[in-house]
Amino acid sequence: MKCNYCNEIFDGDDSILVHFRHLGKNHYDVLTDVDKIMYDTRKKMIESKQEYDSQKQNDGDSDLVFNSRYSKD
Ligand SMILES: [Zn+2]
């Protein structure tokens, strides 16, 4: 998919998430009302999913959680 606000192209499995982060980082100030609503909605969904995932991880092996946290980015 192509960014509506610049010429950046996103593809691959994570394209929706990468594009979402790109919008928030680069274009949030100029998002249209509709895009802003979609962005905020998606953000809430991602945050609740992350809460769910971290709760799931807390029930699992704590070493694995530690390693995955510190190997990201
Ligand atoms: Zn862009």
Automatic annotation (TrEMBL):
Highest taxon listed in the record's lineage = Archaea
- Ranges for region Disordered: 49-73
The biased composition feature labelled Basic and acidic residues covers 49-59
Protein name as catalogued:
C2H2-type domain-containing protein
Naturally occurring in which organism (per UniProt): Candidatus Nitrosomarinus catalinensis
